[in-house]
Design brief:
With 359 residues, the protein is of the alpha+beta class. It has ten helices and ten strands. Strand 3, helix 5 and strand 4 form a beta-alpha-beta unit.
């Protein structure tokens, strides 16, 4: 029995060997299963830069801006009447849309008038110098063919605000790389395209070489130098519109209260002469209204989805262009009265008859 116990094992069990080798290997390198992979260290975050100091207007030599443009700065040149004085303002006059201390002109609530006196002769000579010799027919055809298409990259959209102040800067930016710019006119200003053309040429100094319905091409001139372009301070926001006298009176001039009420009811019940769309082209509206007034005394325009503000703008334009008397704005419907034309014609005829009898 003792001999059997003292004799070593000839074939040791397999589990004994596996435990031995695993134990010896674990002492060398410890690599358990599903061990997390060591991630590389993250680079240190850059320290935030200290905030730049706000520029002081008192020590900034470029402010306030000084512009040599000879006209008063207004938000809209074609859609406002400088001769019409407002009766009130919706914001204080000290809030200039050009920003505090950014312009050397004082804001009056509707405009920033020029300080220096204007020499019209000198301005006209400078404009003629920039335009140079008139274009030939071949040159005009080439420019028109290049810029008249709807996919033209040099295009500016003119909306209900008309020729605005910031639009002048957009025109000169296009003139840096192109000889002309295409202007697509939409909305209320298309009622009077002659007015739009006048202010585009007068304020920008260019020349309109093409006009088709509501499409214009504005040419910069032969001697235009982009490096010597005028300084145009930008408006940072749209100023609130001032308060003007009431457009529609309770009793129309020359009518009694009953007659005015009858005219309004008759206009609401009459068929609409035209249906206007929002931001549409209203080039033929004035001619259609004048033609309708030859047979009708009251005309109704259907302006559904046009907007209340645009309806009033259209009424003001038609009052001056037709001319006529707007007597009602209700539910986006415009009622126009042609005025006392028959009575004036009768009085003129009677006066001429009296003069012939006297002679």
């Amino acid at each position: 029995m003792q001999k059997l116990l003292s004799r070593p094992l000839a074939n040791p069990p397999k589990h004994f060997l596996s435990c031995f080798f695993s134990h010896s290997a674990s002492k060398a390198t410890y690599d358990p299963p599903f061990s997390p992979i060591s991630k590389p260290p993250k680079p240190p975050k850059p320290k935030p830069k200290p905030p730049e100091p706000t520029p002081d207007l008192n020590h900034n030599p470029s402010l306030p801006l000084k512009s040599n443009l000879p006209f008063d700065f207004r938000y809209s040149y074609s859609e406002t009447d400088p001769s019409l004085e407002p009766i009130g303002f919706r914001e204080p006059k000290r809030f200039s849309p050009f920003g505090p201390g950014r312009l050397d002109r004082e804001w009056t609530g509707t405009s920033a008038p020029a300080r220096d006196e204007v020499d019209d002769c000198q301005i006209e000579e400078e404009r003629r110098r920039v335009l140079g010799d008139p274009l030939t027919e071949e040159e005009v055809e080439q420019l028109v063919e290049k810029y008249r298409h709807s996919d033209c990259a040099r295009q500016i959209n003119l909306g209900k605000n008309g020729v605005t102040h910031n639009m002048l800067d957009d025109i000169h930016n296009h003139w840096k790389r192109a000889e002309a710019v295409r202007i697509n006119c939409l909305g209320v200003p298309t009622l009077d395209m002659d007015n739009v053309c006048f202010y585009l040429e007068d304020k920008s100094g260019g020349k309109i070489i093409y006009r088709h319905i509501n499409i214009l091409i504005l040419y910069r001139g032969r001697n235009y130098d982009p490096k010597n372009r005028p300084v145009i301070p930008l408006m940072l926001w749209k100023p609130y519109a001032p308060i003007y006298p009431k457009l529609v009176k309770n009793i129309a001039d020359g009518l009694t209260f009953e007659d005015t009420k009858e005219m309004r009811n008759r206009g609401l019940q009459s068929p609409a002469l035209m249906k206007l769309t929002r931001n549409g082209v209203y080039v033929n509206v004035v001619a259609r209204v004048r033609e309708a007034f030859e047979t009708e005394e009251v005309v109704r325009l259907d302006c559904t989805h046009v907007g209340t503000s645009d309806c009033k703008r259209i009424g003001v334009k038609l009052r001056d262009l037709v001319p006529c008397v707007p007597i009602l704005f209700k539910d986006e419907q415009i009622i126009l009265w042609r005025g006392k034309r028959d009575q004036e014609q009768n009085t003129d005829i009677s006066d001429s008859d009296v003069k012939t009898l006297d002679t």
